[in-house]
Amino acid sequence: MHRLSKVKIEWNYKFAYAIGLLTSDGNLSKDGRHLNMTSKEEEMILMFKNCLGLKNKIGKKSRGGERDKKYFVLQFGDRNFYDFLVSIGLKQAKSKTLGQLDIPRKYFWDFLRGCIDGDGSIGTFKHPESNHPQLRVRLYSASPKFINWIKKEILTLSNLKGGWIEYDSRGLYKLAFAKEDSIKLLRLIYNPICCLTRKYKPVEYLFKN
User: Fold this and answer.
1) Per-residue pLDDT tens digits for 48-91
2) Rounded to 5 degrees, what are φ and ψ at 87?
3) What counts of helices (H) and strands (E) characterise the chain?
4) What is the model's pTM?
5) Per CATH, the architecture of 110-207 is what?
6) 13-94 maps to which CATH number?
């Protein structure tokens, strides 16, 4: 019996970005069919929906016993897409066990942009000695295998010099890059058509030179 798909499984920059968002903020249900994306940011859910060409309605829900429904959620069923995600390395309850994913290297930077929009940060701080602003890109994950794979791919596919991984008090692994490498990384990953405005706007100046 032919199974209808809601998602067209075809690698392109939008598809890869959506896989990055799903890797960081998505969830595969136990039924082998349903998936959902949840975020406080409506823009993220809209971006995910548009990148995959979904028609499902976006709902709202609460978390952790709260009454306020301040989280946006998109849930949909697609067994073909679910099976595809499993085939590239995603899984249920993936947060601590996620490892290497089968992402075409042509679209790795789009995938990484989705991961950073979901579970990363782009910020500046003042150097304690020079007092000059320092840019820093960070990506967080509960899985050491995944964060180490991301670092390895970045260094393999670019001329970045370093990056380091730390374990923090929340039980998360943090991959971070210093100023020079952060600038190089941002110039590799950003596509203003498909990204979170909140994270892109503060570093937009990097792309005007």
Assistant:
1) 999 999 999 999 987 766 777 788 999 999 999 999 999 999 98
2) -65, -25
3) 7, 8
4) 0.92
5) Roll (3.10)
6) 3.10.28.10
